[in-house]
Design brief:
The chain has an eight-stranded mixed beta barrel with strand order 1-2-3-4-6-7-8-17. It is of the alpha+beta class. The protein has two domains: about 130 residues, Roll (Diaminopimelate Epimerase, Chain A, domain 1), CATH 3.10.310; about 120 residues, Roll (Diaminopimelate Epimerase, Chain A, domain 1), CATH 3.10.310. Helix 1 links the parallel strand 2 and strand 3. It is about 15% helix and about 45% strand.
Length: about 280
């Protein structure tokens, strides 16, 4: 048995366990599957392992794991939770330079009080090239209005990447479709070699959308940072919204901005809710 100190945080009810992984010798994918289990572990949508950066110019390196133990390239909510974990321990208020599998990310601390934080994350430019997403469907780039065949008919999809793959579907009413079952089917479509995250988007106005999320390796979640970014990118590519959008999720509101020719930015909260020790039995 190994004792592993942890913190649990959430970004709009998308919850993560964060650990200092410098002295963890166990397999991180196996640990993620065990500690994220809702009944037999601590329970969370994902695990974030905080590690020393590869470059001394940066503050840390984050690795993201889904609840099923698979590793994700990036997590918009997870990176805010881990940033709160790091800032609370170092006392820093300067912008954080964080290495991820999706590249270097800059995180600005906008507010902090009583274990609650507000961050703005520079998420990078969206990836629209099919080979880099990756996406195997034959389509023009960017992939907008792709006729995606499902067991429930053909759906028009916008396919992008925020460092991790996303498939965005526009809907008129979330209650009129079984979007969770569709999400599970699309996640595992052969068109996505690395599987995909799926967003179902209802446009409310030119600057507001409502989104439901099916996350790769997790399932239905109350919120998603990269999913919100991908949803806004898809809306802009489809000329449905302006470039700064309020994203309403079941867990609360995020703000996403994509200025022409620049990076996507994500603004949202993180809250520290628990600290403890997990007894890992391997």
């Amino acid at each position: 048995m190994t004792e592993i100190p942890f913190s649990k945080l959430h970004g709009l009810a998308n919850d993560f366990i964060v650990i200092d992984a410098r002295e963890v010798t166990e397999s991180l994918p196996q640990l993620a599957g065990a500690i994220c289990a809702r009944s037999t572990g601590v329970g969370a949508d994902g695990l974030v392992a905080v590690l020393p950066p590869k470059s001394k110019r940066h503050d840390a390196r984050f690795r993201f794991f889904n609840a099923d133990g698979s590793e994700a390239e990036m997590s918009g909510n997870g990176i805010r939770c881990a940033a709160a974990f790091l800032a609370a321990r170092t006392g820093t208020r300067k912008p954080l330079q964080i290495e991820t599998a999706a590249g270097l990310k800059t995180i600005h601390i906008l507010k902090s009080a009583a274990a609650k934080w507000l961050f703005r994350v520079s998420m990078g430019k969206p990836i629209l090239a099919t080979k880099k997403i990756p996406f195997k469907g034959e389509a023009l780039q960017p992939v907008v209005g792709f006729p995606l065949r499902t067991q429930r008919g053909v759906l028009l999809a916008t396919v992008t990447s925020m460092g991790n793959p996303h498939c965005t579907i526009m809907v008129g009413d979330h209650t009129a479709i079984d979007w969770a079952r569709l999400g599970q089917e699309i996640e595992n479509s052969e068109l996505f070699p690395n599987r995909t995250n799926v967003e179902f988007v209802k446009v409310i106005s030119r600057d507001e959308i409502v989104v439901r999320f099916w996350e790769r390796g997790v399932g239905e979640t109350m919120s998603s940072g990269t999913g919100s970014c991908a949803a806004v990118v898809a809306c802009i590519l489809n000329r449905l919204t302006v470039r700064k959008v309020r994203v309403q999720t079941p867990g609360g509101q995020l703000e996403v901005s994509w200025p022409a020719g620049k990076e996507v930015t994500l603004t949202g909260p993180a809250e520290d809710i628990m600290q403890g020790t997990y007894y890992y039995r391997g």
